[in-house]
């Protein structure tokens, strides 16, 4: 066998094999590689979108939390204001009630003082009549001296 003919045969076989590979094997393999690269690119893009969505969701969550905190503080402030209004109203009502009770007590005391004065006048008048009866040693007619007693009562 000749070295040159072997080279030529190997050269021809190489080109036939290369042509067959380029015609039948290479296109499906490139297609599979391209599909795989596209899937990887889509996966990376989806991951990037997910990261962006996650960041946006975190921002929304933070905004919602801040809004909820503000709303909670607002509710607490409103409740404190309402509580203060209730306390002020209760104080005002208690003050009015105390003033009414004091006024009633003063009126009752005034009535009792007036009643006590009237009773005291009656007793003094009765004692004066008894004293005069004792002094005169005679009986005094109450109907005759009614004007005298009423005058005495008015003076006392």
Automatic annotation (TrEMBL):
It comes from the Bacteria. It is a single-pass membrane protein. F-type ATPases have 2 components, F(1) - the catalytic core - and F(0) - the membrane proton channel. F(1) has five subunits: alpha(3), beta(3), gamma(1), delta(1), epsilon(1). F(0) has three main subunits: a(1), b(2) and c(10-14). The alpha and beta chains form an alternating ring which encloses part of the gamma chain. F(1) is attached to F(0) by a central stalk formed by the gamma and epsilon chains, while a peripheral stalk is formed by the delta and b chains. F-type ATPases have 2 components, F(1) - the catalytic core - and F(0) - the membrane proton channel. F(1) has five subunits: alpha(3), beta(3), gamma(1), delta(1), epsilon(1). F(0) has four main subunits: a(1), b(2) and c(10-14). The alpha and beta chains form an alternating ring which encloses part of the gamma chain. F(1) is attached to F(0) by a central stalk formed by the gamma and epsilon chains, while a peripheral stalk is formed by the delta and b chains. It is found in: Cell membrane; Endomembrane system. Its main location: membrane. This is ATP synthase subunit b. Gene3D superfamilies: F1F0 ATP synthase subunit B, membrane domain. One of its GO terms (molecular function) is proton-transporting ATPase activity, rotational mechanism. The keyword Phosphoprotein does not apply. It comes from Solimicrobium silvestre. Pfam families: ATP-synt_B (PF00430).
